Amino acid sequence: MVVVVKTNVSPRFKTQQTTEFTAALLRELVAHLRQNRTQLRQEWARRIQEAQLLTAMSEEEIFAEATSVYDNYVEAVETGTFEALQAYARNLSERVIPRGVETDEVVGIVLLLRDVLARSLFAKYQDDFDKLNSILDAYEPAANRIANTVAVGFVQERERIIREQQDAIRELSTPVLQVRERLLILPIIGAIDPQRARQLTEQLLRAIRTNRAKVVVIDITGVAALNSVVASHLVQTVEASRLLGAMVIVTGLSPEIAQTLVTIGVDLGKMHTVGDLQGGIEEAERLLGYKVISIVEDGSQA
Amino acid sequence: MEVPILKQQHYLIATVQAALTDADLTYLRDALVERVGKFRSHAVIVDVTALDVMDSFASRTLRDLAYMIRLRGAETVIVGIQPEVAFAMVQLGLNLEGVATALDLEEGLAFLNHKGKSRGAGSNLSRN
């Protein structure tokens, strides 16, 4: 229920009276909107096209969406509840966002509808200024809330998509790969924040268990900078892996990183480090008892 | 709850079945340290697969156990630490320093057999 209370009218009786008055006006408003549904809807669709909004959608689609938005709009004005509209806005966003519809377009069409309806009210009550005033008093708050609801719904849907993509990127950014039986490599690329470090460790530990790994090579060639927080995460990862019976070799520490670590005094005594990824894998193979032999010797067997 | 200690040739195997109280842990430590001499065992394996939490007392007791066993002339391997437990432990700074660990019982036995074979030869892990 939308309650419009004039601030200087405080006694309860008067408030209630105002509420009833508003409700009556809203009923009248809704009746008007229902009566002129076809005409107003067409006017709205025309204005949308005129303003060149929703260019990603065809004329029929716009009209179809306009119809359901209109009906939801009227229903929200009538009942004063926004749950259905909210759900519809979310559903609409879900459908139109992948097609490249922008936030300003969605807000724009809702504001256009608000404008179209307001104009029709002006036209209807142009002879009775007081009536027009009170009708607008009832209409405006509801219209504002509707515009708000739709815009928020759209933005929320966007944010949800962004969050999902972030999760996907994070998941993809830490692949744990098996290069040989019982040998995993974990190339780390990009910045490491505490959250990513945590996720990385969890993924690695799970992979160690499922692949029954004995040696893990963590390559940090792609890590631009390492601070004490990240370094301690790395040490934790190494220790946790050891508790599962896997040995960790860290490779690809750049001269800058090496210098930083020494300067800030991080104890890397527990870490087994090798210059580059190739060296790390060779060392791991040695630990696992593999020996790589070239089958092409002196070109004789080629 | 008392932890059964099985003798398997030269090894003693203690499999933790359920969450242990501090008293149970202490008892397990003392029993293992005593039996390792009695049976002239070469090594002790403690399987903690069933534990989904490892507090500072438990981890300190296991570390002490390993040190004591070493002083008695045998090896200790802790096997079956769950990934989540391992992660929680290192975050609390409990890293069982200087204690051998392995993925599960099978790995622990493989590790010990390997160590037993290369004993005296002085070589490290190598399969060929």
Seen as an oligomer or otherwise, the chain set is heterodimer
Regions of chain B with pLDDT < 50 over 5+ consecutive residues? 120-128
| CATH fold type of the largest domain in chain A | Globin-like
Indicate the CATH architecture of chain B.
2-Layer Sandwich
The total of helices of chain B stands at: 4
Q: What's the N-to-C terminus distance of chain A?
A: 86 Å
Query: pLDDT below 50 for ≥5 consecutive residues: which ranges of chain A?
Result: 5-11
Q: Specify Rg of chain A, calculated over alpha carbons.
A: 33 Å
Please state the structural category of chain B: alpha/beta
Summarize the helix and strand pattern of chain B as letters: EEHEHEHEH
User: What percentage of the residues of chain B does DSSP assign to strands (E)?
Assistant: 15-25%
CATH class of the largest domain in chain A: Mainly Alpha
Q: Any idea what the shape of chain A is? A: elongated
Portion of residues in beta strands of chain A equals 5-15%
**Total count of strands of chain A:** 5
Compute the average pLDDT of chain A. 82
- Report the average pLDDT across residues of chain B: 87
Query: Per the principal axes of the C-alpha atoms, what is the gross shape of chain B?
Result: globular
